[in-house]
Design goal:
Layout lengths: L3 E7 L3 E8 L4 E8 L11 E2 L1 H19 L6 E8 L5 E4 L9 E2 L7 H9 L3 H8 L8 H11 L3 H6 L3 E4 L1 H9 L6 E2 L1 H4 L5 E2 L4 E2 L1 H6 L9 E2 L3 E6 L2 H4 L4 E7 H8 L8 E5 L3 E8 L10 E8 L2 E10 L3 H11 L7 H6 L9 E3 L17 E3 L7 H27 L5 E5 L6 H11 L2 E5 L4 H14 L5 H7 L2 E5 L5 H23 L4
Parallel strand pairs: 1-5, 5-14, 9-12, 15-21, 21-22
Antiparallel strand pairs: 1-2, 2-3, 4-7, 6-8, 10-11, 13-14, 15-16, 16-18, 17-18, 19-20, 22-23
Helix pairs in contact: 10-15, 11-13, 13-14
Bound molecules: adenosine-5'-diphosphate.
Adenosine-5'-diphosphate binds next to helix 11 and helix 12.
Length: 500
């Protein structure tokens, strides 16, 4: 009986496979890290073949650990690091260059030029995105212009483009299927989120030949079958979604107004806005959550660049804590941060400030300040940065946001989640299984395979482990936010002085 679902969770630093049973419980998992290439300051590359090899190795290992075979798996769901760009040869399946990773800033000048030429508004209007190197379009354009003969070969139909989902599907199906889903396509800056097609004006702007683009299929869909030789028998690929959207789906944020936050290295908040895209006036991105059947669900997205990474810095940079886990214990030894505010803008500020020049700032230090106050201030910052994004979502949609669903490595920290609830005036809900990204992909595949008949089946499976509710006076909350915003100002003012 095909009773299991296999999620391929292809991340930025590791490829992972998780096998779930029908109840959504984890049966086995396997992970392999792969090489990060930094050929120049600010450039980040991956070897797409190593990504494929590590992904396949983890799938085989997970099957072995679970004591299962391909015939037990109802479907595979793929979730992936978004925007990372690969170009490969149609004839051999070999990449023509290393993959350019979402973090890579090599096309910063191209984006500055787009802004100077006044093209940002049209890009935002069509794609819901900002003109930033983060997205695939300028990365693809860079490859076409910098790899010898690439543009001519692409025009001749010899080269194919894909984000990591597309690259994996192509190789899993032995080159039969060249496809992506709207949650990934929407991050390329080539996809019109209103017409839900590749946009001719943008293809022209970035000089991308249409013949190299993948077909865009629904998020829950039979994309194809894996080659029998890979796992011993073919397995259907039944769901494909970018990592943040998969987490939103895995958290059962199916209704407009539902919000999740992932506390990882950075923080990603996504809000389901329903069947219509919402234009942001507060620095959020508008993107596609998923397409099921012919129904498209849109989302608003906000990013906090440094979230759990602030705790890593306390551990590895300052050396004032021994482990991430210790942060909660140490912070709990003081009632509050003693007036210390920490803006961890190590690489600039994301939503809603978008200040690339801002840097980390510690305010309010006195002779009485101890490491416990600083650790507490870091946890405060993780929550307060999230409040700024929640507020942007409230302003853009007019919705209240009474509830925040959370996941990611730092969401195990109870103190952090209580602070989040207090500062954002929301109930914070942590599910029993925080592997929501992989589960989202598995759930999408399960819908396609008929394991679940509809979204209500998925709702029935979720179990809430903990709920945190606001426990401070509104005036105290207001005072904290006012101080926090002063600290942000301080970071911004310090960045301005760079210009003199
Ligand atoms: P990513 O997938 O982005 O690499 P994870 O979701 O694995 O990240 O989360 C890891 C991050 O969470 C790290 O930055 C780490 O410092 C932080 N973290 C892990 N445990 C805790 C904890 N108990 N309290 C606060 N932060 C934590």
């Amino acid at each position: 009986m095909k009773e299991y679902l296999m999620a391929f969770d292809q991340g930025t630093t590791s490829s992972r496979t998780i096998i779930f049973n029908k109840k959504g419980e984890i049966v086995a998992k396997a992970a392999r890290e792969f090489t990060q290439y930094f050929p120049e300051q600010g450039w980040v590359e991956h070897d797409a073949e190593e990504i494929l090899a590590t992904q396949l190795a983890t799938a085989k290992e997970a099957l072995r650990l679970a004591g299962l075979g391909a015939e037990d798996i109802a479907a595979i769901g793929i979730t992936n690091q978004r925007e990372t760009t690969v170009v490969w040869e149609r004839s051999t399946g070999k990449p023509i260059h290393k993959a350019i990773v979402w973090q890579c800033r090599r096309t910063e000048q191209d984006c500055t030029r787009l802004k100077q030429e006044g093209l940002e508004a049209v890009i935002r209007e069509k794609t819901g995105l900002a003109a930033d190197p983060y997205f695939s379009a300028t990365k693809l354009s860079w490859l076409l212009h910098h790899v010898d003969g690439a543009m001519a070969r692409a025009k001749a139909g010899e080269l194919l483009f894909g984000t990591i989902d597309t690259w994996l599907i192509y190789h899993l199906t032995g080159g039969k299927v060249h496809a992506t889903d709207p949650s990934n396509a929407a991050r390329t800056m080539l996809f019109n989120i209103h017409t839900r097609t590749w946009d001719d004006d943008l293809l022209k702007l970035f000089e991308v030949p249409r013949c190299m683009l993948p077909e865009v299929l629904p998020t829950a869909h039979t994309f194809g079958q894996t080659l029998p030789s890979l796992f011993g028998a073919p397995i259907i690929i039944g769901g494909v979604a970018g990592d943040q959207q998969a987490a939103l789906f895995g958290q059962c944020c199916f209704a407009a107004g539902d919000v999740k936050n992932t506390y990882g290295t950075g923080g990603f908040l996504l809000m389901n806005t329903g069947a219509a895209p919402v234009t942001s006036h507060n620095g959020l991105l508008t993107t596609i959550g998923w397409q099921i059947g012919d129904k498209t669900t849109y989302v608003l997205e906000g990013s906090v660049f440094i979230c759990g990474a602030a705790i890593q810095w306390l551990r590895d940079g300052l050396g004032i804590i021994a482990s991430s886990r210790e942060s909660a214990e140490i912070a709990a030894t003081v009632p509050d941060s003693g007036g210390v505010y920490f803006v961890p803008a190590f690489v600039g500020l994301g939503t809603p400030y978008w200040n690339a020049a801002a840097r980390g700032t510690l305010c309010g230090i006195t002779r009485g300040t101890t490491r416990a106050h600083i650790v507490r201030a870091a946890l405060d910052a993780m929550a307060l940065q999230t409040v700024d994004v929640v507020e942007a979502m409230r302003r853009d949609t007019g919705l209240e946001v009474p509830l925040l669903r959370v996941d990611g490595g730092a969401s195990v920290n109870d103190l952090l989640l209580q602070l989040q609830s207090d500062y954002a005036a929301v109930s914070v809900v942590r599910p029993a299984c925080i592997e929501t990204t992989a589960w989202g992909a598995a759930a999408l595949a399960g819908l396609t395979a008929g394991i679940y008949k509809d979204l209500s089946d998925l709702h029935a499976l979720t179990t809430t482990a903990s709920i945190f509710t606001p426990n401070i006076a509104p005036a105290t909350r207001k005072a904290h936010l006012a101080k926090w915003h002063k600290a942000i100002k301080a970071a911004e003012i310090f960045a301005e002085s760079e210009a003199f």
